[in-house]
Task: inverse folding
């Protein structure tokens, strides 16, 4: 599929628009009759027809340029101690077993683990363990880990520095003059609306049929609404700017930096990928692809406060900083960023004490961690429009934290 197809597609109309969300969830085929092909025609905001399954598990790599992140020789162990998905019960709103959940909602993969032990590993819609599942905005949290490493290794001195200190092209620009602390917290003060502005950000940075440029979008943004640090305003511009800083400070692509300092030290077993613009610069707000087990390793790394085995991959201080809010982060504290939600350093907070640290991605991609028990849950999906699936997923996660290890 070419980029031109991405932005010139006709709108997609919902099947069974008058039906209940639950009915639509259980009757949509998601391309099963076509053996789940990839390379579909998109509608606006990357919403597309039932080729989602294939696109979310490798299909994007057929459409866009990407940089590879290769694993090393050592693989961190994940031992199977699988429970019976038909018998494990939890107090969900509409489902009571994992098997019920997977039959009811459009999930492609579900993995639950703790301290290197996998309790649940399920794939649906003919997905396989070796497939790479797309992150969508979970890539922002991966960028957070790369920022922590860049600080640990001295490539970046402080998150209170301005991006223009590290990126000459950003000198004198709006985003170049905003402290990285506020970029990491999505409180930049720039005038941008996430739902309104993809044609000013996503299209020229990734989706355009012609040359695309992450840098051109970031450098050229001039719209300011308020001073930084006042309020939460979710935008792709913040992680894209941070990505430029890490690239410039380390003199490596983000993929190279991740490979040398995150992926291989963590002990990943499979290759990961990062989508790029036409010049090879990563679109690191979206587009990180990895196997489900390696998503679990990333989650485990955070739950273990940056340590994998005997290796401290990311400093404990960075992970702990991601879990709490100081006076300079008050605008993104739990209940301030959004109702019943907090934010910090490109991680979401679903617990008022910072106990749950989440990666969230569009259409049902989610990595949950319980920092107290070190339980992790990885969820990949093709839709979150079809019903209140989180009403089942969060009770499942809570029940998972109580599993005997």
Result:
């Amino acid at each position: 599929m070419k980029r031109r197809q991405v932005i010139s597609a006709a709108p997609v109309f919902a099947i069974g628009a008058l039906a209940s969300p639950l009915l639509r969830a259980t009757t949509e085929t998601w391309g099963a009759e076509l053996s789940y092909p990839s390379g579909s025609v998109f509608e606006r905001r990357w919403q597309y027809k039932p080729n989602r399954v294939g696109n979310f598990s490798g299909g994007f790599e057929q459409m866009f340029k990407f940089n590879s992140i290769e694993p090393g020789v050592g693989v961190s162990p994940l031992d199977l101690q699988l429970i019976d998905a038909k018998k494990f019960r939890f107090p969900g709103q509409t489902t009571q077993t994992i098997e019920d959940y997977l039959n009811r909602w459009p999930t492609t993969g579900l993995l639950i683990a703790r301290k290197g032990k996998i309790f649940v590993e399920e794939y649906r819609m003919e997905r396989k363990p070796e497939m790479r599942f797309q992150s969508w905005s979970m890539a922002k949290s991966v960028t957070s880990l790369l920022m922590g490493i860049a600080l640990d290794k001295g490539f970046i001195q402080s998150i209170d520095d301005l991006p223009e200190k590290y990126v000459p092209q950003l000198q004198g620009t709006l985003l170049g003059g905003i402290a990285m602390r506020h970029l990491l917290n999505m409180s930049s003060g720039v005038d941008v609306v996430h739902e309104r502005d993809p044609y000013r950000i996503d299209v020229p940075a990734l989706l355009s049929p012609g040359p695309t440029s992450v840098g051109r979008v970031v450098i050229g943004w001039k719209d300011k609404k308020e001073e930084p640090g006042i309020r939460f305003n979710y935008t792709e511009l913040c992680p894209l700017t941070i990505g430029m800083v890490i690239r410039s400070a380390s003199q490596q692509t983000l993929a190279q930096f991740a490979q040398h300092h995150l992926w291989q030290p963590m002990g990943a077993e499979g290759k990961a990928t990062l989508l790029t613009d036409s010049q090879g610069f990563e679109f690191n707000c979206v587009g990180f692809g990895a196997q489900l087990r390696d998503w679990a390793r990333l989650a485990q790394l955070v739950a273990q406060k940056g340590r994998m085995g005997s290796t401290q991959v990311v400093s404990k201080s960075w992970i702990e900083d991601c879990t709490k809010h100081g006076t300079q982060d008050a605008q993104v504290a739990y209940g301030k960023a959004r109702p019943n939600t907090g934010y910090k350093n490109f991680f979401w907070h679903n617990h008022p004490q910072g106990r749950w640290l989440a990666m969230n991605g569009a259409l049902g991609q989610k990595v949950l961690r319980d920092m107290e028990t070190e339980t992790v849950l990885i969820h990949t999906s093709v839709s979150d429009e079809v019903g209140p699936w989180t009403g089942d997923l969060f009770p499942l996660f809570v029940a998972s934290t109580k599993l005997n290890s």
Summary: The chain has a mean pLDDT of 91. The chain is about 30% helix and 15% strand.
